[in-house]
Amino acid sequence: MNTVDPAAPTVGLTVPAKVGDRLEDVGTPALIVDLDAFERNIDRMRAFCAAHGVRHRAHAKTHKSADIALIQMTRGGACGICCQKVSEAEALVAGGVTDVLVSNQVIDRAKIDRLAALAGRARVLVCVDDAGNVDDLSAAACRHGSMLECLVEIDVGAGRCGVAAGAPAVALAKRIAAASGLKFSGLQAYHGGAQHLREHAKRRAAIAAATGQVETTLALLKGDGLDCPIVGGAGTGTYRFEGTSGVYNELQAGSYVFMDADYQRDLDEHGHPVTDFENALFIWTQVMSHVRPDRAVCDAGLKVQSVDSGLPVVFGRSDVVYVKATDEHGVIDDPHGALRLGDKLKLVPGHCDPTCNVHDWYVGVRAGRVEVLWPVTARGMLL
Q1: DSSP state of 274
Q2: CA-CA distance, 37 to 322, in Å (whole number)?
Q3: Long-range contacts of 102-107 (CB under 8 A, 24+ apart)
Q4: pLDDT tens per residue, range 9-48
Q5: How many CB atoms lie within 10 A of CB 17?
Q6: Which residues of the chain have pLDDT under 50?
Q7: Is domain 35-260 given the CATH code 3.60.15.10 in the classification?
Q8: Which pLDDT score, from 0 to 100, does residue 14 have?
Q9: Chain centroid, CA 367 distance in Å
Q10: pTM for this entry
Q11: DSSP string, 157-218
Q12: What is the pLDDT of residue 13?
C-alpha cells in the first residue's frame, strides 16, 4: 500500500483529516469513501467474474489511485489495471501495479518512448488502431529492449476510436504480430456509448451488436492462425452483457467501485434503477450560508466536482435538493428549513471519474471514523 503519512510535510497539499478523526470533524469539501460499501462493491464484481469465468481488468481512470488499484488486484482478484494516459500508467507502476493496459492510443513519439521504457518494469499493453503507429511502437520497444503488447481496438458502435471490425482489424493484427518488440495480444472492443443507455433492452441490444462484430473478427483471426488471448471491453453499465456473452473474457468496469449518480439512472429489466453496486464515494460538504429560509449554500461548487453528467445528489435525503453549482458554492433547495449553518452533507457526484481528478486525497471512513487516507496518485496526470 502507498498510503501517504498525513503528518509528513507536503507542498501545496491540504490534508482534510487524519486517521482516527470522527467523520464530522473531516474538513470540507473533501472526498470520502465509505469503506464498507467500497469493499462490498469489489467483492460483488469479483464474485460475478468468478461465476462467469471472465477476468476483470479494473479501470483506474475512475480513481487514479495506486492504493485502490492494488486493492482491486488483491481483494478484488483483478488481473491488472486499465488507465488512459502514459503518465497514469507510470504513476500506477511506481505505486506497485505490475500489469497495466493503456486502453487508449499513444501516438506522440515521446510518450511512446516512455511507454516502451515502462515495459521494462511491468507488463504493459496498449491499444492500436493505426498501421503507422505500429511502426513507431516497434521502434521504441526495440530501442529499449522491451516488449509492448498491443490490442487492436475495433469500433463496435461508439464512433470514437477503433478500426473497423473484420478484415481491417485482422490486417492490423497481422502487422503487429510481424513487428519486432510487439506482441498481438487481442482485441479492445469497448462500447462507451452503451454505458448510459437508460433502457435495459437498448443496452443489451447495443452489446449484442458489438459482440457480433467481435465474433466476426475472431473467426477471421482464427482463419489466419492468429491467437486472440484477450477480448476486452465492458463498463459498469453493461458488464453483465459482455460477461455472459461467452465472447468477451476481460471486463474493464471502473465506476462500479464508487458508483455515481449518473450510473444509477440506468434501468434494469424491470424498469427499476440498477442496484448492482452501492454509492461508496461522496463529496463531504458543509452548509456555509443560510440567509434565505428556503435555500442553503454549501462549499462544494464547480471546483470540487464535475457536473457534465448532472448535478450531485444529496445522499440519504429527500427533503433537500442540490440545484445549482458556481465556482465555490453549491445551492441547495431547503423548502422546509431542515438545514442549519454548519450542517454537513454527503453528495453523490454526477460523474465520479473527473470529480476524483480534482482532489488530492481520499478519506476512507468506517463506522464514523477515518481509517485510512489515500492520495489520488495520478491526479492531474494527463500526458
Answers
A1: P
A2: 23
A3: 102/126, 102/127, 103/59, 103/127, 103/151, 103/188, 103/190, 103/232, 103/252, 104/161, 105/129, 105/130, 105/133, 105/153, 105/161, 106/133, 106/137, 107/133, 107/136
A4: 444 458 999 999 999 999 999 999 999 999 999 999 999 9
A5: 22
A6: 1-2, 9-12
A7: no
A8: 80
A9: 26
A10: 0.94
A11: SSSSS-BPTTHHHHHHHHHHHHSTTEEEEEEE---GGGTT-SSHHHHHHHHHHHHHHHHHHH
A12: 54
> Residue type at 28?
T
Written as nine digits, the cell of 241 is 452483457
pLDDT of the residue at 5: 55
**Pick from 47, 46, 81: nearest CA to 62:** 81
Q: How many whole angstroms separate alpha carbon 122 and alpha carbon 198?
A: 38
β-pair type (230-233, 344-348): unpaired
| Other beta carbons within 10 Å of 95 | 18
- Per the structure block, which three cell numbers stand in for 5? 503519512
Grid cell, residue 155, equals 469500433
The CA distance from 185 to 202, in Å, is 30
Do the Cβ atoms of 275 and 256 come closer than 8 Å?
A: no
**Amino acid residing at 6:** P
Rounded-to-integer distance, Cα 183 and Cα 232, Å = 16
Cis, peptide link before residue 29, omega less than 30° from 0: yes
Can you name the CATH fold of 23-34+275-375? Lyase, Ornithine Decarboxylase; Chain A, domain 1 (2.40.37)
- DSSP H helical segments within the chain, as ranges? 35-52, 66-74, 86-94, 109-118, 131-144, 167-178, 200-223, 239-243, 352-356
Does 35-260 match 23-34+275-375 at the fold level?
no
pLDDT per residue as tens digits for the range 279-325: 999 999 999 999 999 999 999 999 999 999 999 999 999 999 999 99
Dihedral of alpha carbons 361, 235, 58, 92, sign: negative
> What span, in angstroms and rounded, lies between the C-alpha atoms of 69 and 80?
8
224 DSSP assignment: T
Domain limits of the chain? 23-34+275-375, 35-260
Query: Given this model, what pLDDT does residue 12 score?
Result: 42
